[in-house]
Amino acid sequence: MSDTDPTTATDDTLRTPIVAVLGHVDHGKTSLLDKIRGSAVTAGESGAITQHIGATAVPLNVISEIAGDLVDPTDFDLPGLLFIDTPGHHSFSTLRSRGGALADIAILVVDVNDGFQPQTLEAIDILKRTQTPFIVAANKIDTVPGWNPNEGKPVQQTMDAQSDRVQSDLNEKLYEIIGELSDNGFSADMYWRVQNFQANIGVVPVSAETSEGIPDLLTVMMGLSQRYMKEEMEIDTTGPGVGTVLEVKDTQGFGTTLDAIIYDGTIRNDDTIVVGGLQGPIVTDVRALLRPRPLEEIRTEQEFEQVEQVAAADGVKIAAPDLDDAMAGAPIRVIRDRDRSEVIAEVEQELAEIEVTTQEEGVVIKADTLGSLEALSSTLEEEEIPVMRAEVGAVAPRDVRVAETAGEPTNQAILAFSVEVLDDARDLAEQEDVELFEDDVIYQLVESYDDHVTAIEEAQQ
Ligand code: GDP
């Protein structure tokens, strides 16, 4: 690995800030991440950015190359930024850890033409709840009539230089976003007018299409991390690792594996770990730690290389026995030189902190990650819809059995958020008149359930 790899540090050091990208579907999260990765590849010599499991690390020297004269690398002692690669609903899970936030900072992507949409509001709720500092990327500025491409200059300079008419077109849209932020309890302004990014949300106009504003965005991210998060980011990269499960999945040759982010300490290939599972903590021994091979090395079937250890902040695929019940969004802790029962108790405690309240009667909810389960549960609570059972994972026949006995007809329902419904569960639900609702968007899921309730109530009158 090269000296610029932010993940190879071994002493007490500042870890790479972890960045999540959130926002409404189609507002440009994936495009923005791709553009940042693409710019990093173009800017650095090949191999300068490192592809990780579930994340991309962009080192400081590459950031300063992209940002040009906006970022002087000598002003920073952070190694770079680690972007979590799974935007969209998975971000719910990636934002959790120890009842706080896994991501240190977030980018909330808002389409300038579309403004705030339901998933923007969902994201804002999560950012508030986890107290994650964030900036707003006001995306798609290239689509605003009259906008002139700016040949890579910072957007601020371009906006100042452009004609009044263009400025007012874009300004109007940007001020709508600032207004929406203020309606949601945040004080916000254009990023170049914000002095204190902790007290105020900075809005950065960008285009994931033309790359305009990306230098500005990275500059603000670096400044935000450096100024306000330094102390929290001092870590001992040799201590027992602490992380969060991003995904539980089958990997050929390794059985059920975990894609995880390690945000503190180190995980080694001979460690015993504790992982949050459906039935409580799972204690197991690491069998292998896997990372993607550099592209030029991929020839045949072996996509991954085994490594001896991975230090924070980094993504890794963990192979170990007994992971079938592990939950996305759950904590992972390395035992190593710590007391086993203490570590298990910590994981138990962390699982208990996840706020999902259930009652004796109510609907069944299933979600893909603990974080999304929590988000769905809190929406239902606000709408006073009772929940009887809440679990991570696919909808199985036993969920239908539970829903069947749920009391009121309106309760005989399963709300499935971003999870699969097993075929036998679907058949059983049809037989037993249990209603299935499936969606990848919380508000749409709850809306279709509401419509169903209204229909039942009307039929009863
Ligand atoms: P996501 O659902 O938030 O990940 O959104 P995507 O990144 O998939 O983008 C949705 C659509 O918007 C795609 O067709 C993109 O090509 C387009 N798009 C994203 N960013 C921009 C932008 O800055 N300018 C323009 N013109 N189109 C964009």
Question: How would you describe this structure to a colleague?
Answer:
Helix 9 links the parallel strand 21 and strand 22. The longest helix has 20 residues, at 164-183. The chain is an alpha/beta fold. The strands form five sheets. The chain has an eight-stranded mixed β-sheet with strand order 3-4-5-2-6-7-9-8, with helices on both faces. An eight-stranded antiparallel β-sheet has the order 15-14-20-11-12-19-16-17. The chain is 31% helix and 27% strand. Helix 10 (397-404) packs parallel to helix 11. 50% of the residues are buried. The protein contains twelve helices and 24 strands. Bound molecules: guanosine-5'-diphosphate (GDP). Guanosine-5'-diphosphate (GDP) binds at residues 23, 25-31, 87, 139-140, 142-143, 207-209.
Topology:
Elements: E1 12-14, E2 18-23, H1 29-43, E3 50-51, E4 55-59, H2 60-67, E5 80-84, H3 91-94, E6 105-111, H4 118-129, E7 134-139, H5 155-161, H6 164-183, E8 188-190, E9 201-205, H7 214-228, E10 234-236, E11 242-251, E12 255-264, E13 266-268, E14 272-277, E15 280-285, E16 288-292, E17 304-307, E18 309-311, E19 314-319, E20 331-334, H8 340-352, E21 363-367, H9 370-382, E22 387-392, H10 397-404, E23 413-417, H11 423-431, E24 435-439, H12 442-460
Parallel strand pairs: 2-5, 2-6, 6-7, 7-9, 8-9, 21-22, 21-23, 23-24
Antiparallel strand pairs: 1-10, 3-4, 4-5, 11-12, 11-20, 12-19, 13-18, 14-15, 14-20, 16-17, 16-19
Helix pairs in contact: 2-7, 10-11
The structure holds guanosine-5'-diphosphate (GDP).
